[in-house]
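hi!! sorry for the late reply, been swamped w classes. u asked for the two structures so here they r. pasted raw, havent cleaned anything up. first the sequence of the first protein and right below it the tokens
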Amino acid sequence: MREQRKRLKGVVTSDKMDKTVVVAVTTTKRHPIYGKVLRLVKKYKAHDEANECRIGDRVEIIESQPISRHKRWSVVSVLERAK
């Protein structure tokens, strides 16, 4: 049986490229020694076939086969539109 592909939720930070958006995914992690909660932000380039995403939209992305040199994710759905 095929493994489940990873799904992440994040905010679109750039839509200047054709059929590509940059999605910032924020995760929290506790420091191993001091216990402080750290907020980590990682950016992913995701494929947006219909060019429907805009800056500020909250989207869900899914792991996919390599589409280009830097793109390994695809936009599944727009969860919330930017105001």
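now the second protein. again sequence first, tokens right under
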Amino acid sequence: MDYGKFKYQQSKKLQEAKKKQVHVEVKEIKLRPKTDDHDLMFKVKHVRRFLEEGNKAKVTLVFRGREITHMDIGRAVIQRFAAELEDIAVIESQPRVDGRNMFMIVAPKVKK
């Protein structure tokens, strides 16, 4: 067998495999504990669009100044955000605190 022909066929197989693979991005959306209802729904709509495209979404809640003392308010906002998306998304990473940020990662539900 010709080695050059073999290498050519291998490269063609690799190119085909690259065409078929799915590239998933992690899109980020930022919130604050004082984000109003309408603004929250607007952000939910954006995350829905990200999930429908097949991407994951990272929801970050940023605490500024003395807001860090009211973690319960932030947790309620992020839980409400998750509840709005429960029909289309699954929570991949539960809400965690990292410094002054609380974040969770949501992924699209697997279609049957």
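hope this helps!! also noticed smth abt the second:
The chain has a mean pLDDT of 91.
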